[in-house]
Design goal:
This protein is mostly helical and about 350 residues long. It folds into three domains: about 150 residues, Serine Threonine Protein Phosphatase 5, Tetratricopeptide repeat (Alpha Horseshoe), CATH 1.25.40; about 110 residues, Serine Threonine Protein Phosphatase 5, Tetratricopeptide repeat, CATH 1.25.40.10; about 45 residues, no CATH class. Helices cover about 65% and strands about 0% of the residues. The chain has a two-stranded antiparallel ribbon with strand order 1-2. A hairpin with a 2-residue loop joins strand 1 and strand 2. The longest helix is centred in the N-terminal third of the chain and has 25 residues.
C-alpha cells in the first residue's frame, strides 16, 4: 500500500509538470500581469434567476436551445482537479499563473476551482476570470461566450449582472464579426451566432441593445432562408419597440421577407391579401427612403391579385355560361381592380356583352 501511494504521488507530479510545460509551449500571446476581476460576494450558484419569461416568436424554442449544465468535478481529479486544497488558496494560485503568463494552465485551474467549490465565495470570481481569460488572452471567442453565459446562469446574484450581460452581447457581436474556421475553411457561423444573440436577449430583455439584437436575429434568419421566422422576429420587434429606429428598418426587411414568401410558395389568395394589407400599413409609417421600394412591392401584389381576379371573371365568359354571369363577373372585376392593365380590355368586352344581351 505504501509503495502504491509513493507511485501515485510521483505520477501526479510528473503529469503536472508535463501539462505545465505543454501549456507554456502553446502560449501565443505576450506575458502580462493581470489580476482577477472582483464580482460581488454572494450565495453560490443560482441558475436561471434572470431568464426572461416573455415570448419571442421567431426564436428557437426550448427544445432547440442547449442550456448550460451545472459544472461538476471531473473524472481523474488527481490530473484535472485543483492544485490547492481550498478555494482561497486555489484562487491565489490562479492569480500567480496568470501573472506568469501561463494562461493555458490558469484556464484549467480556474475551471477546476468552479467545479470543486461551486458555492465558495471565490467561485464567481474564478468563473468571471475564466471568461475574461478566454476572451482577452486565449482568443477563444465562442468559449468566452459560453463561460460568460454560465456566469449569468449560475452566479447572477454575485455579479454586476447588467455589466456582464453587456459583455455577453459584445462577445456575440465579436463572434459574428470573426465567423468560424474549420480545417482552414472560413465561413459564417449563422446558426450559432443567431442563437448567441437570442441568448443575449433572453438573459437581458430590458437592455438598451435588445432592439438592435432582434434586428440582427431577423437578418440571420433571412440569411438561413427562414423567412417565415424572420417575419415573426421583425413583427415582434416593431410591436415591442415601435419608436425605435430599428423598428423602421425592420418594417422594410419584413416587407421584403413577406414578398419572398409570396414568390416562393404556390399562389395563395389569403397570403396575397395579407401581404397587400401589410404593405398598405407599412406605407403609412415607413421611412421616406423606403417608400419607392414599398410602393413597387404593393404594385406587384395588386397585379398578382388582379390577374387572379381576371382569370376568375374570364371563366364565366364562355359558351357554357350565360352572358349575365359573364357581365356580373366582369363588373365585379372592374369594381375591385379599376386600374388594372386588364381594365380597358374588360370594359370593351363588357360593352360587347351588354349590346349582345339587348338584341
Amino acid at each position: 500500500m505504501e509503495d502504491y501511494d509513493i507511485m501515485w504521488r510521483v505520477n501526479k507530479t510528473l503529469l503536472s509538470v508535463s501539462l505545465a510545460a505543454l501549456s507554456a509551449l502553446l502560449l501565443a500571446r505576450p506575458v502580462a500581469a493581470q489580476d482577477l476581476p472582483t464580482p460581488g460576494a454572494g450565495m453560490g450558484p443560482q441558475t436561471g434567476v434572470r431568464y426572461a419569461t416573455d415570448a419571442y416568436p421567431g426564436f428557437d424554442n426550448e427544445k432547440e436551445i442547449v442550456s448550460p449544465s451545472r459544472k461538476s468535478p471531473r473524472w481523474f481529479a488527481f490530473i484535472f482537479g485543483p492544485d490547492r486544497a481550498d478555494a482561497k488558496s486555489q484562487l491565489a494560485h490562479c492569480v500567480e499563473l496568470i501573472r506568469a503568463g501561463d494562461y493555458g494552465k490558469a484556464r484549467r485551474q480556474l475551471d477546476a476551482l468552479v467545479r470543486e467549490w461551486p458555492t465558495a465565495a471565490e467561485a464567481a470570481k474564478a468563473q468571471q476570470a475564466l471568461a475574461e481569460l478566454c476572451l482577452s488572452r486565449l482568443g477563444q471567442t465562442e468559449d468566452a461566450f459560453a463561460e460568460f453565459r454560465y456566469l449569468l446562469d449560475f452566479y447572477s446574484l454575485q455579479i454586476d449582472y447588467d455589466a456582464i450581460a453587456d459583455k455577453l452581447y459584445a462577445v456575440a457581436r465579436q463572434m459574428k464579426a470573426e465567423g468560424k474556421e474549420v480545417m482552414f475553411v472560413h465561413f459564417e457561423n449563422v446558426v450559432d451566432v443567431r442563437r448567441a444573440y437570442e441568448a443575449c436577449v433572453l438573459h437581458a430583455p430590458g437592455a438598451k441593445w435588445v432592439a438592435e439584437a432582434m434586428l440582427e436575429i431577423g437578418a440571420l434568419r433571412e440569411k438561413a432562408g427562414e423567412y417565415g421566422k424572420a417575419v415573426q422576429v421583425y413583427e415582434n420587434l416593431r410591436n415591442l419597440y415601435p419608436d425605435a429606429e430599428e423598428a423602421k428598418i425592420a418594417l422594410r426587411h419584413e416587407a421584403e421577407a413577406r414578398m419572398v414568401l409570396l414568390d416562393d410558395h404556390a399562389y395563395n389568395r389569403s397570403r396575397a391579401r395579407d401581404t397587400l394589407g401589410f404593405l398598405t400599413m407599412a406605407l403609412a409609417s415607413c421611412r421616406e427612403a423606403d417608400r419607392d421600394a414599398l410602393e413597387a412591392m404593393r404594385a406587384r401584389v395588386e397585379t398578382l391579385l388582379a390577374e387572379e381576379a381576371y382569370r376568375s371573371a374570364a371563366f364565366y365568359d364562355s359558351k357554357t355560361r350565360t352572358k349575365r354571369s359573364a357581365i356580373n363577373a366582369y363588373e365585379k372585376f372592374l369594381s375591385q381592380h379599376p386600374d388594372s392593365p386588364r381594365a380597358a380590355a374588360v370594359r370593351a368586352r363588357l360593352d360587347e356583352l351588354k349590346k349582345g344581351s339587348e338584341q
